[in-house]
Write a structure and sequence with these properties.
Helix content: 25-40%
Strand order of the largest sheet: 1-2-3-4-5
Oligomer: single chain
Structural class: alpha+beta
Order of helices and strands: HHEEEEEHHHHHEEEEHEHEHEHEHHHHHH
Bound molecules: zinc ion
Radius of gyration: 26 Å
Shape: elongated
Length: 433
């Protein structure tokens, strides 16, 4: 049998797309940037173990144009897939691909009939986390020293801002983990907790860079109970649960959870604007904006200084005329001293320190105009009186039942405990243990 020339082999390997080749035999569905399906090399009942990294990924992404099964360890590119699945020799696999992609290889015929694809795996139920988990982490945030919250409390807020800080934290259901990490809940617009991100902050308010965020469904104990492998995991925008509670507010979207909380507490007028976060410059996905579009909301995207172009692109693709990239804040408030890496929150904090106020233009006021009356009322009610977590959660979720044992903000025991912890804590250590 004649040998296939190397340049033809290279050419075929270059044009063969793993998602199309595997897709001839396995029904694939999108899972983030990857595709998944039932592994054809073992008796697979759980979608999610067999991953296809498509050819559409950029060339520097590891595993591009390949498949891998995490159960039976089958892996390779389009050629290896055909050799393993169709028991073809290497040259026959090349011929098979030549035929599929209409690229002449040689004159040796190959009997090629793709079989009908396997039936689609049943869709996985979407992961729903019990609300009691939210309550538990919020209670931990009250009882333990969570560095993020500690840092937030030390910011140079004015009196009104300081008075509402605890309420703001509760509005976002900010929780704590036993090891000192902060827990940012991702609760959807119907009030269902879907995910929670665990992040470790340092006493200076920056994230511990060498530690990746954790997800609650992957934590010890939670993993077993929540069974993330048997569910589809959706990650709504941080703060989505505020959408239905404030149906008329303009929706501001920022990159980080930290920025959303700071800006929300900075302005404090939830009735005219609420703050959501997508978790990072690259995490603003079109489908996460869909619930906002369905509600006909006015959306302002607040990228950090280096993210304008990327978010303008998302905005253009969206083609939703009530979505704009908002740069006025940066344009009027940013100074050389803030530096090129400054994010929205950095500037707000600097302005708190220096006593500068953001200059609001007609454009900005225009955006909040539609709910101006509501904001007039709410702006005048700083919450100096004790507030109970239970009341806030009950309000957020429109539930009539009390949600958890309320912990009074002014409870002297809690205050003392936190104070003792603060004094004992050695801030030169980076671990909050
Ligand atoms: Zn397998």
């Amino acid at each position: 049998m004649p040998k296939i020339p190397d340049d033809i082999i290279r050419r075929i390997q270059d044009i063969a797309k793993i998602e199309e080749v595997v897709g001839d035999f396995v029904t694939l569905r999108k899972a983030g940037v990857n595709l998944t399906g039932l592994c054809p090399f073992h008796d697979d009942k759980n979608d999610g173990n067999f991953i296809v990294r498509p050819s559409t990924l950029s060339y520097d992404r590891p595993g591009r144009n390949s498949y891998r099964c995490f159960v039976c360890d089958a892996k390779g590119g389009p050629v290896q897939f055909l050799m393993a699945h169709e028991r073809l020799s290497f040259p026959d696999a090349i011929r098979w691909l030549g035929k599929k992609y209409n690229e002449p290889v040689d004159d040796v015929p190959l009997n090629y009939t793709p079989p009908p694809p396997r039936p689609a795996p049943p869709p996985l139920p979407v992961l729903e986390i019990p609300r009691s988990y939210v309550a538990r982490t919020m209670t931990i945030a009250q009882q333990q020293l969570i560095l993020f919250i500690y840092w937030l409390e030390l910011l140079p807020w004015d009196d009104e801002q300081r008075a509402r800080l605890q309420k703001t934290l509760w509005m976002y259901c900010v929780g704590g983990w036993r090891d000192g990490r902060v827990v940012f809940w991702q609760i959807d617009h119907n009030g269902v907790p879907r995910a929670a991100k665990l992040m470790r902050y340092l006493p200076d308010g920056h994230r511990k860079k060498d530690e990746h965020p954790g997800w609650i469904y992957n934590q010890d104990g939670c993993r077993q109970r929540l069974e993330p492998d048997k569910h589809e995991i959706v990650k709504p925008l941080f703060g989505s649960h505020l959408l239905n509670r404030y149906p008329k507010s303009v929706v501001n979207i920022v990159e980080s959870e930290k920025t959303a909380i700071i800006m929300a507490n900075y302005y404090g007028d939830f009735d005219s604007q609420i703050w959501l976060a997508c978790g990072g410059l690259k995490h603003l996905q079109l489908d996460s904006l869909q619930p906002l579009i369905d509600q006909g909301r006015t959306i302002w995207l607040w990228p950090d200084k280096d993210g304008r172009e990327a978010w303008q692109e998302v905005c253009d693709k969206l083609g939703y005329d009530q979505c704009r990239v908002y740069t006025h804040f940066f344009d009027t408030c940013w100074t050389e001293a803030d530096g090129d890496k400054a994010d929205v929150a950095d500037i707000a904090i600097r302005m708190m320190r220096t006593g500068d106020k953001p200059r609001q233009t007609g454009k900005w006021q225009g955006a909040t105009e539609q709910s101006a009356t509501a904001s007039d009322q709410s702006g005048a009610t700083p919450t100096h009186e004790p507030v109970k977590i239970g009341d806030i959660i009950t309000e957020i979720w429109h539930s009539d039942e009390p949600f958890l044992d309320p912990i009074e903000l002014q409870d002297p025991r809690v205050r003392m405990w936190r104070e003792t912890l603060r004094q004992r804590y050695n801030f030169n250590k980076t671990k909050a243990q």
